[in-house]
Amino acid sequence: MIDLHYVATANGMKVAIMLQEAELEYRVINYDLFAGAHLTAQFKRINPNNKLPAIVDHDPADGGAPLPVFESGAILLYLAEKTGRFLPADPRGRAVALQWLFWQMAGLGPMHGQAHHFLRYAPERLEYPSTRYANEALRLLKVLEYRLEQAEYLAGEEYSIADMAAWPWVGGAALIDIDIADLPAVAAWAARIGERPAVQAAVAGKQTAVPPEYMQKHAVLTPEQWSNMFGENLLAASDLR
Length: 241
Ligand SMILES: N[C@@H](CCC(=O)N[C@@H](CS)C(=O)NCC(=O)O)C(=O)O
Hints:
Elements: E1 2-6, H1 10-21, E2 26-30, H2 41-44, E3 54-57, E4 67-70, H3 72-83, H4 91-121, H5 127-150, H6 161-171, H7 184-194, H8 197-204, H9 223-230, H10 232-236
Parallel strand pairs: 1-2
Antiparallel strand pairs: 1-3, 3-4
Helix pairs in contact: 1-3, 1-6, 1-8, 4-5, 4-6, 5-7
The site of glutathione has 12 residues, from loops.
């Protein structure tokens, strides 16, 4: 059994997709980010970064104590290695898959995250960061377009954890005013993945579906919610013991 410490954002969704794809037994522990449910000493013992998602594997391969894993890319890799699925076995294919997984973790995710922050969550429109991150978000999607003009999936012919990592972020592009219809290879890839039963199960799952409040174009937060997400309460969590 795997515990999935979860919120239905892009980073959470990629792990829910992998758990469905690999047909692993898991239970979802949902967190209300706006309420600061992740900012506890108890959760810090699972993820010292106090962010979601994280997993706890109660049946690790070594038969030892339950194993917590944080960082969505590391979780995908852990689950791929645990199951022997969704990561090419040959060194060349594996290198290609991992480079796109790391590209998502270091580029697409963080840059889109900043674009979402400045375009959707910032209390006032700040021109410089809004333009900087909107441009970078679009540039990265054009990198994806270039790759997907050459190959059906990021690792080549095989659907892999690299696709699972990128797909939910691409799905959120409309919220930062990017129309993926302008990127035909990305749009076709996104539609192909969206048709997979495991992906549909993760997207529509009772505990994993994205609630409408996360899809608002412009989020208006209370001061307490703001503090939990971006301010003093979040900073204070780094001192929790
Ligand atoms: N690099 C991390 C990012 C995790 C992350 O930023 N998670 C967000 C939700 S998508 C979160 O927990 N935000 C709450 C906060 O920052 O307080 C990963 O991929 O797991």
